[in-house]
Amino acid sequence: MSDLAKxxxxxxxxxxxxxxxxxxxxxxxxxxxxxxxxxxxxxxxGKATARHAVSDWMDIEKERxxxxxxxVMQFEYDGFCINILDTPGHxxxxxxxxxTLMAADSAVMVIDGAKGVEPQTRxxxxxxxxxxxxxxxxxNKMDRDARDTFELVDEIEKELGIATCPINWPIxxxxxxxGVYDRTTKEIVEFADTxxxxxxxxxxxxxxxxxxxxxxxxxxDARELLLSEIELLDGASEAFxxxxxxxxxxxxVFFGSALTNFGVEIFLEYFLKxxxxxxxxxxxxxxxxxxxxxxxAFVFKIQANMNKAHRDRIAFMRICSGKFEGGMDVYHVQGAxxxxxxxxxxxxxxxxxxxxxxxxxxxxxVFDPGIYSIGDTICTPPDKFAYxxxxxxxxxxxxxxRQVDTMKRxxxxxxxxxxxxxxxxxIFQESNYGMEEIIVGVVGVLQFEVLExxxxxxxxxxxxxxxxxxxxxxWIKDTNTDLDxxxxxxxxxxxxxxxxxxxxxxxxxxxxGMTLDRNEGLELEEYSEN
Length: 530
Ligand code: G4P
Known about the structure:
The chain is of the alpha+beta class. The chain has an 8-stranded antiparallel beta sheet, with helices on one face. β2 and β3 form a beta hairpin. α5 packs parallel to α6 and α12 (about 410-420) crosses α13 (about 445-460). It is globular and about 85 Å long. Bound molecules: guanosine-5',3'-tetraphosphate (G4P). Guanosine-5',3'-tetraphosphate binds near residues 26, 143, 257, 258 and 259.
């Protein structure tokens, strides 16, 4: 195998998705611990910043220049080179959270054992589901009282529409948590919370068949219950099937407690065996093999520098094929120009460092003088293909925005358009108005404040922002539809996006159904593919 193939085949690039507080940060910390990146868990950024109020968040963003809302953690473990993509969660949940998923090859879904599937998990899962990438489930906080295990697994299947295959099974929960049963090796892995935050200590494994030893370990009642649950599970659950996992049709399920570092190592080991190396990506010239010797990448996120003295930006690229080398000349397909990738950087928790080389599967951040847009492709000349674009995700919060000082209309329009181009917000115009009033849509409400802050600090424009009650957006499939002909509900709004496409905003899902009923042949889409 060539060196290029070796490097690429050992890469595993995944995102961790969860609802806030399920334990994503804690689990990430434990992963890094196994990678030897940190001595004591507890130093992953995200968490500290997540706890800050909105105003602090701005300052943090300014201080650090870029990377608060996006980072990639890379580490080596057991011969693999692992890239964990951080999906912004708490207050900074935004379209970037979704876009990050476009750069991952698989996802780890963390679920709180006491809570089950929560709204944010559902939203993020939907994006993974649409891409058909493998999704692994880690049911966390088993050291606390959890819901019935069968019920939890059933909920994942029903609510998310994916089959599940428990790889291990918990023995009790809360103060009765005794460990997990490894269905592959038929062993009990005994719970111990003695190695919090360190990677020392081995987990004791006992064969379930060894009646005396296993009874001594977990007690007779727990063993009896476990035996009956396994029987039920063996009869009812889907068998492990790697093909189905690869296609995102079957989610391997694991149980553990990230806080006490229990079940994390077992998870990591199975996960690395079951997940996939960098995926081949589809371009307009067919599928591109990651091991192709020619470098190619696409931009999945653009981060504006909050330093107003330099209106520069960082474009985050996912390398899809070949090898990247510092100072490389590449072809920017959408800009139809040869460019040099300047100051490529890689993020590691809080640090940024200059990358000398990187491979398919890796993420690099490059200095962007304002030439890149989300979804753009970069290739090695003479290649000129373009990767499939990144969809526009449906905003869920809307506001009408106008400038306080009408004399500043020009700056206002310029600023808001630029920020929209970066993909931080989406802007819409009411079908009969010009740019005096703009409707802004965002995925996470924090983006409104970011908009207000940036217009003030970078463009010197004060705005008035009036929140609107819409929660649902639908693109009209036939873009030639005359909006005036649509007979909707009275609380519906007709708008157009930056590309002039017609859309409808709704207050509730009932109005969507009503509008569909009233307009025969009307087709609405929840997101836009380009
Ligand atoms: P997030 O990134 O998904 O938002 O969750 P995070 O890891 O920050 O965890 C949220 C809270 O849940 C934290 O407690 C964390 O310590 C706790 N937690 C995470 N995993 C486990 C687990 O396996 N068992 C138990 N019992 N708790 C867990 P906190 O009190 O909010 O923060 P802290 O004071 O512990 O830092």
